[in-house]
Every structure is written in C-alpha cells, then in structure tokens.
Design brief:
Elements (H helix, E strand, L loop, with lengths): L1 H39 L27
C-alpha cells in the first residue's frame, strides 16, 4: 500500500519540478532576447515612438489625396 501512494505522488512532483524549470527557462530566454534587442537598437530611434516602418515611395506613384 505504501508503494502505491509513493508512485502516485511521484508524477506530480516531477510535473511540478518540470513546470518550474520550464517557466524559469522561458523567463531567462525572454530577458536575454529583450536585452539583445535593446542593445542592438539604433541610437537614433531611441526617442521615437514605436510604430510601423515608414513606407518607401521610390518608383511608385504618389497616392496621397490632392488638396
């Protein structure tokens, strides 16, 4: 009877340890990716608001509304 109770809780212990390890790995990975993005960002874009990249109109007709 003690064998059954030991093995039934063993699975939960393994799942708990694996879950914490997975969360730690995800947090460390996210922190490293954010740090890499922050360090490789061009200096001239630091004061600008985030948003879509400007569209280049080279070789295309201007489709702005005429005033």
């Amino acid at each position: 009877m003690s064998e059954t109770s030991l093995t039934s809780g063993l699975g939960w212990i393994i799942i708990d340890i694996a879950g914490v390890a997975l969360l730690a790995f995800a947090a460390i990975y996210g922190i490293l990716m954010w740090r890499r993005r922050r360090l490789t960002r061009p200096a001239e874009t630091i004061g600008q608001q985030p948003g879509p990249a400007p569209k280049r109109m080279e070789g295309r007709d201007d489709r702005t509304a005429a005033s």
